[in-house]
Amino acid sequence: MKYLLVVGDGMADYPVPNLDNLTPLQAAYKPNMDSIAAKGRNGLLRTAHKDLKPGSDTAILSVLGYDPRRFYTGRGPFEAAARGIQLKEKDTAFRCNLITEKNGILVDYSADHITSRDSSKLIEALKKTLEKPNEIEFFSGLDYRHFLILRNSPNSLLIECTPPHDAVGAEISTVLPKAKSPEAEKTASLLREAILKSKKILESHPVNVARQKSGKKPGNMIWPWGGGKKPSLPSFKEKYGLKAAVISAVDLVKGIGIYTGMKIIDVPGATGRDDTNYEGKADYALKALEDNDLVFIHVEAPDEAGHAKDYKLKVKTIEDFDKRLLGRILKGLREPYAIAVLPDHPTPIRIGTHTKDPVPFAIQSPFLGADNVQKFDEFSAANGAFGLVKQEGLISLLIASAQTTNQIKR
Ligand SMILES: [Zn+2]
After folding, report:
1. Burial of residue 181, with CB atoms counted within 10 A of its CB: 0-12 exposed, 13-18 middle, 19 or more buried
2. Rounded to whole angstroms, what are the CA distances from 94 to 133, 248, 377?
3. Do the Cβ atoms of 351 and 15 come closer than 8 Å?
4. DSSP letters spanning 115-156
5. Average of pLDDT values for 18-24?
6. Gap from CA of 355 to ligand 1 centroid (Å)
7. Distance CA 314, CA 320 (A)
8. pTM higher than 0.90 for the full model?
9. Ligand 1 centroid distance, CA of 342 (Å)
10. Per residue in 290-325, pLDDT tens?
11. What is the mean pLDDT of residues 57-71?
């Protein structure tokens, strides 16, 4: 028996007036997801926890059966792992965006989507000037997404860092890192100092001078956020006895794969956007099933469409996900399989960010009888046989669905 876990990031939504008050999942033509819903059993899954912000970091841990309240301290270490950055026990890894500051305002969280070609030179300049080995170190990532590592930093988790995408338009001085308790003040001021000094170094850098000449916004300041300690997670194999692989374009998801001992499969042309290589992901997933028990496939594009508040694009990404990825996988599968399809969290068009609403899921397996649900969407799934499932409950249901004792008469 083989297992597939297929996640369309942020697919779930609310009814959209421009779609005749249907959700993008309801409006999309998606025969493959509907077939899994009709042949299998359905339910709603809570992937968000009460005291944690909803997002892919905690939701995907939860979907994989790891309680983020226990295993999650921040997204930085997961993303850093995907870039090959090693952490020691006392280190804290922060995501470090290159942003655009103008007249004291944070105007762009991505410095005009600066490319790695420009940004790597800026990070290099910071390494030469701001880096203090064994205290504060910088690492280049992709495009505007870089890393700041505090070595041997006590109390670094007691600092409130505003994610830059939530601070666009804000006065920098009001959103700088803040200590949540007095003992973290020293570390918080180290971060604030690095941010303010980075402006002086980056503003006049030739890369930024050239960017401004050609009408592009400069990457003239760093913005650390998402700090976390090196996570310690039991491997997926240890936990469930299944050898697993992950396919995703997104560093965060790859990093979760690394820390849970999954094989990371890189697919050429996988971008994390709507131009991603859906067919390639399907083909690599089928290939990965040959020597893995479970393949986890993650597609970022619907989430991006949700953030962009673009309902047409969201419907298109769901249709591409269904036809070009899921359909191709289903056609190519040879062995008996159990498959689960779901979003990790909703990213409703109306609000452009993640919510804590439960998400629809469907599980199909040769040993699992169907319920009465015919379609895969937020409302149909509510009538499914699984009902409302608690956080971290999905993987056990998927694995149990492949046990013959579950067989029921149709
Ligand atoms: Zn998102």
Report:
1. exposed
2. 16, 21, 36
3. no
4. -HHHHHHHHHHHHHHT-BTTTEEEEEEETTEEEEEETT-TTG
5. 98
6. 10
7. 10
8. yes
9. 15
10. 999 999 999 999 999 999 999 999 999 999 999 999
11. 97
54 Cα: distance to centroid of ligand 1 (angstroms): 9
Lookup: tokens for 367: 């040993």
Contact between 148 and 131 (Cβ < 8 Å): no
How far apart are the CA of 307 and the centre of ligand 1, in A? 7
Compute the distance from residue 185 Cα to the ligand 1 centre, in Å. 30
Stretch 270-291: mean pLDDT: 95
Give me ligand 1 centre to Cα 249, in Å: 13
Residue 36 DSSP one-character state = H
Residue 131 alpha carbon to ligand 1 centre in Å: 31
Q: How far apart are CA 348 and CA 352, in angstroms?
A: 6
What average pLDDT does the segment 186-195 reach?
A: 96
Q: How distant, in Å, are the alpha carbons of 48, 52, 231, 247, 358 from that of 72?
A: 13, 10, 7, 21, 20
Distance 353 CA to ligand 1 centre (A): 7
Express as a percent the part of the chain with pLDDT over 70: 98
Q: What is the pLDDT of residue 222?
A: 98
The 3-class SS string of 9-26 reads: CCEECCCEHHHCCECHHH
**Which residues touch 14 (CB under 8 Å, ≥6 apart)?**
23, 346, 348, 349, 350
Residue 267 has pLDDT above 90, yes or no: yes
Q: Which residues are within 8 A (CB) of 83 and not within 5 positions of it... i.e. 6 or more apart?
A: 139, 141, 142, 147, 251
The fraction of the chain above a pLDDT of 90, given in percent, is 94
**Cα 60 vs. chain centroid, distance in angstroms?**
7
Give the pLDDT of residue 409. 41
